[in-house]
């Protein structure tokens, strides 16, 4: 706490915090997946994202940027499937939307009808994309689920999709079934037992239709619950593991468990406070609640994914989810999840939602209050996209990067170190103390990195790259190493600006800033 108090009092803070940083990957370091950063797309306007007859170049570019950083295309979930039916007579999809309101300018559809062309549009994704698709379970209509699964199988076996190496990684049966009783999709007494029985009946038909076998690339994703604590009706990851499903022929086809998570819910009104969202302790509190679930899944050899997440449920809170501060939240959230062993984090997105990283089409009204835009706003990224890019850059393209969290005794400063072939290569430091544009004094933290041992292989220099924002409430004008993704094409623009410092030098991390360090060793450049 001391450094902050001092920094407030004196303009240039003389204090340097210390953080130990190992030069070799310690034994508690975990592999961090190059597919960590994913997107979950609302089914109702999926074809707006990806394109129909032609691909959506803007969306493609934003995904390809990330693919260049990690070597893997970001995984995509076409989710929220419980209002989607299938009709072969529909070319792509048809959806029925309720009227927009100022509080919900971009409501989600009441129902969606997909045809074969709908799933075929996955061919417009970047080559190598791994896709998860949900089929309808909410409406208890097994015919709908089976027709969708058949159409999925046709799409992912089509020549253009196979040629682009775009694969159906998971089929998900139903979305947040733990909420069905609350939402009126099932009887109020809909228990976990009843759920599991019905899910098994559906999955037996879906695996046949989607041709899921022990040797197929495609597997089943289990869970997709919103809450693991909301277990009045017995829904929990542990209950899934204990259920008899693993003693059936469906058991071996389930290879991952998906949890949905939001840091809070502000459906009406904008009750969120940005500093609360960004808060280091809150992020750790929100995610570490799932550690017992992750451990249980790992014991059973199942992968743990956060299949749908974002800042605040109900499409985000205005002035919070769409701001630069949310980028700092998302970066810490992603890396903390990765450090806990989560293999994928799918940020939920819908056309015009406040918490999007990407707005892939022209918008004709404000995402904040629904006021008409004249002229319409062209496709653009929102601040959270920078978090996706920075995390991807930190993970890098080796496919074998390991991560640890740095132990930093500071309420707002979080840090992570990254190792390749066992050697320290990068670090990320995030100062989540909120600075509002217009505030006068922007505080800074000074940090001195100390190597855990004076090995001859210690790095000599570090390249410092900074995420700049005018203030956490701003929604544009961010710069990552001087560069911007706020371009017409979604491709990076501007000239790269970095600093080169000896590793012994104090690092200055300003209020509401994130930095990446890339370490340079003797003999390398
Ligand atoms: C969609 O919902 C509307 C209103 O509830 C209903 O009239 C219509 O029949 C539904 N369409 C389909 C295809 O389910
Ligand atoms: C296809 O994509 C997968 C990732 O889904 C990747 O591991 C594999 O190397 C790719 N294969 C080819 C031939 O590019
Ligand atoms: C179930 O889905 C099928 C296939 O789209 C449709 O024909 C049928 O009307 C649906 N049943 C109900 C009860 O909605
Ligand atoms: C989760 O984060 C929110 C802020 O977004 C905070 O209000 C809440 O207390 C956090 N929960 C935990 C368990 O830390
Ligand atoms: C951020 O806050 C400052 C100071 O209150 C204000 O001048 C600025 O317009 C705000 N930015 C946005 C995008 O609301």
Automatic annotation (TrEMBL):
Pfam families: Glyco_hydro_79C. Keywords: Signal. Residues 415-515 form the Beta-glucuronidase C-terminal domain. InterPro entries: GH, GH79_Enzymes, GlcAase_C. Gene3D superfamilies: Glycosidases (3.20.20.80). Residues 1-19 form the signal peptide. It comes from the Eukaryota. This is Beta-glucuronidase C-terminal domain-containing protein. It comes from Hohenbuehelia grisea.
